[in-house]
Amino acid sequence: MLTKKILVIDDEAWLREMVQMALSQKGYEVVEAENGAIGVETARRALPDLILCDVNMEKMDGYGTLSNLRNEPTTAAVPFILMTGLADHAGMRHGMELGADDYLPKPFTLDALYAAVEARLKKAQTVRQEAEKKLADLRDNISLMLPHELRTPLNGILAYGEILSAEAATLPTTEVAEMGQVIHESGRRLERLIENFLIYAQLELLSADPQKVAALAKKRTASAGRLVTEHARLQSRLAKREQDLVLEITDSPAPISEDYLAKIVDELAQNAFKFSEKGSQVVVKFSDSPSGLALVLTDRGTGFSTDHITKVGAYMQFDRKIHEQQGLGLGLTIAKRLTELHGGALTIESQRGNATIVTVKLPRAA
C-alpha cells in the first residue's frame, strides 16, 4: 500500500512540527507549508492525499487557501480539514460552503488528530472505489451495447452516402432527396445517441462526488414554466404534432440549471410523442405548491408494463422488436438521474394500452 501524503499548512512552526511528528509515527508522509500562499503552491506540486490547514494566517488565510485549491482541477477533490481555535458557527458554515470536509478545533489531542485524518482518508477511499466501480460498469455497458447502437444509424449514412457518391448523376431527383433525408435523420440520431451517452457518463461520475452533487443545488432556472413551455413546443414541432400538445403551466423558479431542466423536458416529451398515436393528446403540466414543483406529462400511447417500470435503467430498451426503437434508451434514465441528483423523484404510472403519466417532483427554489 502506498504511503499517504499529508500537507500541513500553519504559520506556527511548533504546531507544524508537532503534527509532523505525530503523523509520521503513524506512517504518513508529511509535507509542510508556513502560510496559505506557499500551501497552495505546495499542494499543486505535491498533490497530497489530505490537507490540514489553519484558518487564521497572514498573507492568505485558511478560507482563501481552500477556495484557491477547490478551483484547481488537480486539487479540487483533495480532502481538506480546517484547524481553528475560533470554531464559531458562521465560520464553520463558511468553510463548509467553500468545500471543507471537516473542522479540527484547537487545541486538539493526538487521538482527535488521528481520528479526523483517518476518517477523511477512509471516506476519500470509499468515494474513489465507488467512482472506479461506476467506471467499470460503464465500460461493461459500452462493450455490450454501444457498438451495435452506433452502427445502426451509421450504416444508413454510409450505405446511402456510397450510393450517392457513385450514382448521383443517374438517380432521379426525388430518390436523391429521399436518400439525403435518410442521411440527415441518421446523423441526427447519431448526434443524440452520442450526446446522451456523454451526459449519462458525466452523471454517473458526478454522482460519486458529494461536493459536485451539492453544487447542483445552487443552480437556478428563474422562469421554469417558460422553459418547460418552449421545450414541450419544440418536441411537438419535431414530432409534427403541434395540435396534439396541451399545456397547463404555472411559471416559477426551479432549483436546477436551465440546461438540465431542458434535458428532462426534451427526453420525456419526445418519449410521449414517440409512443403515442398522432391525433391523441400529450398533456404537459408544470405547477408550484408548498410541497414542491411538479412536472407531469401524460400521453395515451403504448404504455409500460409494471415490470418495465421497475426496470427503468441505463441501456434498457422496452419492446424494441415491436417499436423499432433507436438509440441507447438512455433518455428516461437520464431524466430520472437528473431529477434524483437535484433532490427530487421521477415516477411512472402506466398500463399497457392505456395512459402513461410521468411525474417529476423537485423541491422548491429557496
**Beta-strand percentage range:** 15-25%
Please give the count of helices.
Answer: 12
Class by alpha and beta content: alpha/beta
Average pLDDT rating? 84
Q: Mind telling me the C-alpha Rg? A: 27 Å
Element-level helix/strand string: EHEHEHEHEHHHHEHEEHHHEE
Strand order of the largest sheet: 2-1-3-4-5
Largest sheet: 5 strands, parallel
Please describe what this structure looks like.
- The structure is a single chain.
- Helix 2 (36-46) runs parallel beside helix 3 and helix 6 runs parallel beside helix 12 (331-341).
- This protein is of the alpha/beta class and 366 residues long.
- It is elongated, with a radius of gyration of 27 Å.
- It is 53% helix and 16% strand.
- Strands 2-1-3-4-5 form a five-stranded parallel beta sheet, with helices on both faces. Strands 6-7-8-10-9 form a five-stranded mixed beta sheet.
Task: Outline the fold blueprint.
Elements (H helix, E strand, L loop, with lengths): L4 E5 L3 H13 L3 E5 L2 H11 L3 E5 L7 H9 L9 E5 L4 H10 L3 E4 L4 H58 L5 H34 L3 H7 L7 H15 L6 E5 L8 H17 L7 E8 L2 E8 L6 H5 L9 H4 L7 H11 L3 E6 L5 E7 L4
Parallel strand pairs: 1-2, 1-3, 3-4, 4-5, 6-7
Antiparallel strand pairs: 7-8, 8-10, 9-10
Helix pairs in contact: 2-3, 5-6, 6-12, 8-9, 9-12
